Amino acid sequence: MFKPFELFIGLRYVRSKRRNHFISFVSLSSILGVTLGVTALIAVLSVMNGFEKEVQERTLEMMSHATLMERNNELSDWRRVVQILESHPGVAGAAPYAQLEGMLSRKDKMSGVLIRGIVPELESKVSELDVRMITGRIGALTAGTYGIIIGKELADKLGVAAGDRLILLLSGRIPERRPFTVAGIFKTGMNEFDNNLAIIHMTDALQLTRQEGPDGVSIKMIDAMQAPAISREAAFRLNGQYGVIDWTQRNRNFFFALKTQKLVMFVILSLIIAVAAFNIIATLVMVVVDKQADIAILKTQGATPRSIMKIFIVQGIIIGLIGMILGDILGIWLAHHIDSIIGMVESTFTIKVLPCDVYMICDFPTDIHWADVALISLVAFLLCLTATIYPAWRAATTQPAETLRYE
């Protein structure tokens, strides 16, 4: 595309010392602007990808990939349902559950919770709750003993530890008030679970709600990404008498909001690169004015307007490429070290950027998607290339006679 002399002169103009130092300053600011924009985009999108991945993984650790429920009634024969579900080759395990809402209190402290009744010996098939236990184990829950497992944040809020007694309050026609003993404490790192979820034995939950069977069956897939298709195939084996909802439906609005935020951040931070591209326009316009005599001489020696345009396009591309490459390097480095950098800032200024009692995740996980890095680099390059068109056209329209008259 570029002949040797066009590329040679374009590179020479990039390296040459400016008679006007302001042009050099604007060139440097253009490079720094592109670098800053690319760095910010890679770091921010990597953090957002990390948040999305972390939320998804932690959610699927504590919640099933899909839930099967009998229409308008509790499951009366859940053992047969579990057996049929587990016969599907894509299903890793299934376990029943009962769910209710209530209030946990201790002395003058009280907190609303979601109560989940489980069968301890089956729960490990569908969740990673046992792995997240920091005190006790889910096997300590036995029917009739009214033991309860709560999250770390909830335990701190109520001021309880393993072995302490709590009062569970349930609303209804006849309000229920039942003492429970803390059998264990878990920690997932997500405020939604650690502050709002409590686990009891399913038999105790059914006795509190006066139900004969569980509310549904939790299903875990071998591949969570195949949950929508496999859950419906498994439910079809039960002759369509059960409804099924998978994790993508249950969390659709949340993950859609994350993707929307990611798109908005990409557009907003791309404006940094666009501003740097405007600087490239200013740089090249001033270079064109500075090199009027050179352009006129090249034209008198036979250089075509297209060749002149290519010379200045080369210069703009070089500025953009330097900024893009530096931005890629710094952005990837920052994405890999942002958690330690934030930790250093927090320890220096004794602040917490993401308080655990407010946010679902209180650290900064990152997940670099190389497709995102490639897209950011491409956008930066195209913006820089576009910025060269007008100054290059101005250079190509230079009239040699008019220019050399005053030289």
Q: Can you put this structure into words, describing what you see?
A:
The protein is α+β, with helices and mostly antiparallel strands and 407 residues long. It has two domains: 4-58 and 254-404, no CATH class; 72-240, no CATH class. Helix content is 55%, strand content 18%. It has helices at 4-15, 21-62, 78-86, 120-123, 152-158, 191-194, 202-209, 227-236, 247-250, 252-290, 292-300, 305-349, 370-387, 389-396, 400-404, and strands at 66-70, 91-106, 109-118, 133-135, 147-151, 165-170, 176-186, 197-201, 216-221, 242-246. The chain starts with a helix and ends with a helix. The mean pLDDT is 86.
What's the SSE blueprint?
Layout: H1 4-15, H2 21-62, E1 66-70, H3 78-86, E2 91-106, E3 109-118, H4 120-123, E4 133-135, E5 147-151, H5 152-158, E6 165-170, E7 176-186, H6 191-194, E8 197-201, H7 202-209, E9 216-221, H8 227-236, E10 242-246, H9 247-250, H10 252-290, H11 292-300, H12 305-349, H13 370-387, H14 389-396, H15 400-404
Parallel strand pairs: 3-8, 5-7
Antiparallel strand pairs: 1-9, 1-10, 2-3, 2-6, 2-9, 4-7, 5-8, 6-7
Helix pairs in contact: 1-12, 2-10, 2-12, 2-13, 10-12, 10-13, 10-14, 12-13, 12-14
Summarize the structure.
The protein is an alpha+beta fold and 407 residues long.
| Low-pLDDT segments | none
What is the number of strand segments?
A: 10
The amount of helix comes to 55-70%
Q: Give me the secondary-structure category.
A: alpha+beta
Strand content: 15-25%
Main beta sheet strand tally, sense and closure: 6 strands, mixed, barrel
User: Termini distance?
Assistant: 33 Å
Q: Estimate the mean pLDDT confidence.
A: 86
Basic shape: elongated
What topology, given as strand order, has the largest sheet? 2-3-8-5-7-6
Note the total helix count. 15
Order of helices and strands: HHEHEEHEEHEEHEHEHEHHHHHHH
Task: Tell me the count of domains.
Answer: 2
Q: What is the alpha-carbon Rg in Å? A: 32 Å
